[in-house]
Amino acid sequence: MPINYDIDAAEVRVVDDTTGEQLGVLPLNDAVAKAASKGLDLVLMAAKSNPPVCKIMDYGKYKYEQSKKANLAKKRQHVMQVKEVKVGANTDVHDMEVKMKAAKKFLSQGNKVKVSLRFRGREMAHTERGREQMKNVAAYLEEYGKPEKMPNMEGRQMIMIMAPHKK
After folding, report:
1. How far apart are CA 146 and CA 166, in angstroms?
2. Model confidence at 150: pLDDT above 80
3. pLDDT mean over 3-23
4. How many Cβ atoms sit within 10 Å of the Cβ of residue 36?
5. Is the pLDDT of residue 45 over 90?
6. What distance in Å separates the CA atoms of residue 72 and residue 66, rounded to the nearest whole number?
7. DSSP string of 80-147?
8. Domain that holds residue 106
9. pLDDT band at 14; cut points 50, 70, 90
10. Rounded to an integer, what distance in angstroms lies between the CA atom of residue 132 and that of residue 65?
11. According to a count of CB atoms within 10 Å of the terminal CB, is the N or C end of the chain lower?
12. 160 and 86 fall within a common domain
């Protein structure tokens, strides 16, 4: 944002910071002198208008407030992560409960869960058992999230992505 003599215009429309009233169309030198007499800066607000609109303000304070707003917005946002839970085609009931407990926790925190099922050796001949296991996982987690990407094979792995429900 150009300030003072960095503004590329012969004449500018000047707006006072404290009252918000227009001081009129002034030559750039007069406008900068008026701002300097108050100990403030002349800041270009609308460059595309004819003549460009400038505001008399404390530019350092303005930049500080903008950075504070940006930091506050960044602090409030939640970055969604993809957490992974690995299961097998022959994973026993108790082990599945432990893994599903972790998946529930991830989904309730607002993260996505990647459920990956690896087939070892001769298990590749029985991919239907893996599909059944994935259906059980989806049914178990249905109150916390829904499958975003249905189970599909990628080499020796079957992968499903679960997304949390919208709040």
Report:
1. 10
2. yes
3. 80
4. 13
5. no
6. 10
7. --EEEEEEETT--HHHHHHHHHHHHHHHHTT-EEEEEEE--GGGGGGHHHHHHHHHHHHHHTTTTEEE
8. 82-164
9. confident
10. 55
11. C
12. yes
Query: Two tokens at 66?
Result: 């903008």
**111-132, pLDDT tens digit by residue?**
999 999 999 888 888 888 888 8
pTM value > 0.70: no
Short-list 2, 1, 26, CA closest to 13 = 26
13, 44, 145, 162 from 112: Cα distances, Å: 51, 44, 9, 6
3-state secondary structure of 154: strand
**99 shares a domain with 69:** no
Q: Which of 132, 144, 131 is CA-nearest to residue 101?
A: 144
The last residue of a domain, from among 51, 74, 97: 74
Boundary (domain end) residue, out of 20, 49, 74: 74
* Interval 51-66 mean pLDDT: 88
CATH code of residue 66: 3.10.20.80
Angle made by CA atoms 56, 60, 62, in degrees to the nearest 5? 65
